Hints:
Two copies of one chain form a homodimer. By secondary structure, chain A is mostly helical. The first copy, chain A, is built from five helices and three strands, in the order ααβααββα. Chain A has a three-stranded antiparallel sheet. In chain A, helix 2 packs across helix 5 (96-121). The radius of gyration of chain A is 18 Å and the shape is globular. Mean pLDDT of chain A is 87; it is low at 1-9. The structure holds a DNA duplex.
Amino acid sequence: MAEDTEATPESATIARLRRELARGTTELAVLSVLSVRRRYGYELLRVLRQTGEGVLEVKEGTLYPLLHRLEDSGHILATWEAEGRARPRKYYVITPDGRAYLAMLRTEWSGLVDGMRQLLDTLGEVQE
Amino acid sequence: MAEDTEATPESATIARLRRELARGTTELAVLSVLSVRRRYGYELLRVLRQTGEGVLEVKEGTLYPLLHRLEDSGHILATWEAEGRARPRKYYVITPDGRAYLAMLRTEWSGLVDGMRQLLDTLGEVQE
DNA sequence: GCCTGATACCTTGCCGTACAAGGCATCAGG
DNA sequence: CCTGATGCCTTGTACGGCAAGGTATCAGGC
């Protein structure tokens, strides 16, 4: 049938809840992608959307401000490139500082995931 | 430049980042705990803090408003109980509606975790 | 010639959660 | 009597996500 209709049936609720859960992961995702090689903004949108089974539906209004924040804090560097093309692109490269920050982020994330798994798994045998 | 005489050089950053990452998981954690048996607020604080390796450092200012939101949306029910004790407790019970919502939350959470794991693992072979 | 859609960047303003900081009351112990 | 634990609550602020809007270039259809 129409599997194309992904238009979230019953829920502004799901959207809200998904947004809150995914909070902060965008930063982790962006830095991770940039840790492989440099990318420009619009490209990042495509890469992020087609990875991880589309769990991360990054919006433009989220990505661009995020990139600027990362740049301001020195985690990434931006360079404009036109090179014969009419529409210039702004490429982002991760800095050593950004890699250290990324490591921290990954640690925190896996810590959270482990903690939540433990909590969700040991519920039957809760102490007290 | 290494003169961060601050007692917390990077801790403030970690705290912020941890807070943003853990966003939304408190709701999942609370409902999960309540799905086993009823609890009162102050008790929830203890249970949540000692579970999951202390990853979830739930604060009072977070928990109580959250409980009220869950109550308003019909996911939990509250009942005061004094029964001989001077300091009455407000017990919370999960409703059928809350269980359905919890199921949704768990699905979303594991979806996010899977997606992030995929993204973080397949970084070497990113498509274009 | 016009109009749509993709590329490519950007901003403003609102929403919702987390939480620091504060408050109130009861009770046990030194 | 004063501190710390129990037990509940609130207000104000911070901050990321994003809807909705904007700019500009270029390819293609009609």
